[in-house]
Write a structure and sequence with these properties.
Length: 109
């Protein structure tokens, strides 16, 4: 892949790299801060010129030929809902269980 442009998201956890493959296909590859590839997005059109993250890193603006395309980026969230309980993992790897009826919270490390 020939790299055209790359940018970090707003908190530095994902690097979006825009490029062109040997087959002349436009792709955007997403990498973690540790260099692990998360996902590849194929983008139709002619010549890709640039990309840019939106302020909260939920969208990408992609310049192709004389057009600007917008792509929604949906991050993977670590949560589950079952019965009346919502369980989720925070950035510190703390699991929180929240009962949506009684509003009781149980945190576990």
């Amino acid at each position: 892949m020939t790299i055209i442009d790359c940018h970090w998201n707003h908190n530095g956890t994902i690097l979006a790299t825009a490029g062109c493959t040997k087959e002349q296909a436009n792709v955007i590859q997403f990498f973690t801060a540790y260099g692990e590839q998360v996902r590849t997005l194929r983008v139709p059109g002619g010549s890709m010129r640039a990309l840019s993250w939106e302020r909260c890193s939920l969208r990408l603006a992609i310049a192709i030929d004389s057009y600007i395309y917008f792509a929604n980026v949906k991050p993977d969230h670590k949560y589950a809902y079952y019965g009346n309980t919502l369980a989720f993992v925070s950035d510190t790897d703390t699991v929180t269980f929240w009962d949506t009826v009684t509003h009781q919270v149980l945190m576990s490390k």
